[in-house]
């Protein structure tokens, strides 16, 4: 059984937001079209408490996009974004959320970031999504959303690690592209056996 996994289509990742992905809102018509075409839709929401450790503002002397070492490894520091309950954390108003069967929130532990929908950035703390999908008999994921080189990438890689068949819809995602991170993300996904398609091909096959 197939499901569409829509990663973090939230105001803060769209133009005008705190951590805007260039052209991030351009994916909305494509994502909405995909949502219509899938029987099962899961949305994720980046959902940080104020002063989250992934925020540069929680590290005196550091600036957004610096990299620091956290107990669980290397971590990029971000502008404050997707703070729980704020307008920036809300889904983009154009996103068709009604059909979602699950809205999974992540990044809510104050001390640890969670790019992936499956594991937090320690690569060990599960969100529960793998179990949810298995219990429901879902074995194949189509992944889209924001950002291609962070939360989409890590969700796709972890889904592979958990044994799912994974497709990423190329024109339904956009990247932050920090120091070449976008090219590295596509290479890492390819390497892990993630299939990459244009939405037109995905739609034609459904
Ligand atoms: C994301 C950076 C920080 C993402 C979330 O959704 O890709 N990126 N938090
Ligand atoms: Zn975040």
Structure description:
By secondary structure, the chain is α/β, with parallel strands linked by helices. The chain is built from 5 helices and 8 strands; from the N terminus they run E-H-E-E-E-E-H-E-H-E-H-E-H. It has helices at about 30-35, 130-135, 150-160, 180-190, 200-205, and strands at about 1-5, 40-45, 65-70, 75, 100-105, 140-145, 165-175, 195. The strands form 2 sheets. Strands 5-2-1-6-7-8 form a 6-stranded parallel β-sheet, with helices on both faces. It has a two-stranded antiparallel ribbon with strand order 3-4. The structure holds pyrazine-2-carboxylic acid and zinc ion. Zinc ion binds near residues 48 and 107. Pyrazine-2-carboxylic acid (VGL) binds near residues 146 and 151.
């Amino acid at each position: 059984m197939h499901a569409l996994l829509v990663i973090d289509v939230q105001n803060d990742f769209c133009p005008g937001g705190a951590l805007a992905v260039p052209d991030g809102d351009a994916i909305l018509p494509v994502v909405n079209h995909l949502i219509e075409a899938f029987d099962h839709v899961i949305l994720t929401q980046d959902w940080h408490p104020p002063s989250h450790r992934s925020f540069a503002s929680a590290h005196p002397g550091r600036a957004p996009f610096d990299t620091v070492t956290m107990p669980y490894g290397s971590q990029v520091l971000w502008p404050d974004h997707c703070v729980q309950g704020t307008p920036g954390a809300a889904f983009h108003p154009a996103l068709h959320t009604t059909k979602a069967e699950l809205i999974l929130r992540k990044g809510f532990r104050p001390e640890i970031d969670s790019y992936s929908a499956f594991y937090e950035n320690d690569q060990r703390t599960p969100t529960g999504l793998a179990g949810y999908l298995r219990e429901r008999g879902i074995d194949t994921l189509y992944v889209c959303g924001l950002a291609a080189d962070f939360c989409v990438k890590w969700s796709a890689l972890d889904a592979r690690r958990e044994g799912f068949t994974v497709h990423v819809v190329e024109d339904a995602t956009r990247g932050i592209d920090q120091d070449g991170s976008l090219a590295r993300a596509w290479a890492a996904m390819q390497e892990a056996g993630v299939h990459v398609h244009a939405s037109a091909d995905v739609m034609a096959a459904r």
